[in-house]
């Protein structure tokens, strides 16, 4: 199996003085109605965290029972819990290219991991027939990082079956929207009717700019979540993070998410149009989230030249299924995009021979 740097993440691309197009976290600060209660919770840190209100709020948001919610210190912790608790899995399969932490967590727990690689020529669309029938643990992202592809819910649901745990990473689900559609298109967060256990991972990091707070949650069958909770540390989620979870599950926050997702869609469409107009640049698939994956010859050299001009983008060659000609670019406001495109176009125009070498 080809080795990739599974521990590489976009934050290591960023340095002082660089405009950050490498990290998928929304750059705007949290609104006051979220930031102020988080700050106020610091006065209660002498008490141990109490999850009751946060769990109830998250369960209500997703029309779940409370025992079908497990709060975590960031969604990434969920992958560790799954890897540790499901040691009996005989054939874990990770669908790539996607966030590398699921495979890293499985490997660290001693699992032998099979990879299913989606193909660029199909726009990295999910092809259920590629999943081995005997796979008893399947992990897939939706929308997928780094491709930004949003897979149809029916296609994902077709992967569920008795004897298989299906894990869907929806860390970026709140960044998606569809014209005329309410809620989050293609999410399985409220599905309880599928055969076999289905676990959905969610994050509050991306839209609300809370990466440093570490708050996420899992949704799934109560018996399985109890197994995951059994390998979780005591008091795994801090009091400020619990406040964030409760408020972000409120009707006010969900409405704000929808408006942010709609604005993001417009900014993303602008970025895609500008990128697609550049010679030698190919946009992968149909982007649906807070980032865009592109293919361009000499991407490693291009990334270095962009850093010299003040921009950090995410290398793609650490994702299984991608190679040296891939880069991931975060969606930002149109002014930032236009400035970035001007620099990128200048580099491509002046350095085509260097990039090909």
The portion of residues forming beta strands comes to 5-15%
The CATH topology name of the largest domain reads Aspartate Aminotransferase, domain 2
Which parts are unreliable, with pLDDT below 50 for 5 consecutive residues or more? Answer: none
The share of residues in helices is 25-40%
Overall tally of structural domains: 2
Order of helices and strands: EHHEHEHEEHEEHEHHHEEHEEHH
Strand tally: 12
* CATH architecture grouping of the largest domain: 3-Layer(aba) Sandwich
Give the assembly state of these chains. single chain
Question: What is the name of the CATH superfamily of the largest domain?
Answer: Type I PLP-dependent aspartate aminotransferase-like (Major domain)
Question: Structural class of the secondary elements?
Answer: alpha/beta
Round the Cα radius of gyration to an integer and report it: 20 Å
Structural features, described:
The protein is α/β, with parallel strands linked by helices and 357 residues long. The chain has two domains: 10-27 and 259-356, Aspartate Aminotransferase, domain 1, CATH 3.90.1150.10; 32-253, Aspartate Aminotransferase, domain 2 (3-Layer(aba) Sandwich), CATH 3.40.640.10. 35% of the residues lie in helices and 15% in strands. The strands form two sheets. The protein has a seven-stranded mixed β-sheet, with helices on both faces. It has a five-stranded mixed β-sheet with strand order 1-11-12-10-9, with helices on one face. The longest helix is centred in the last third of the chain and has 26 residues, at 251-276. 46% of the residues are buried.
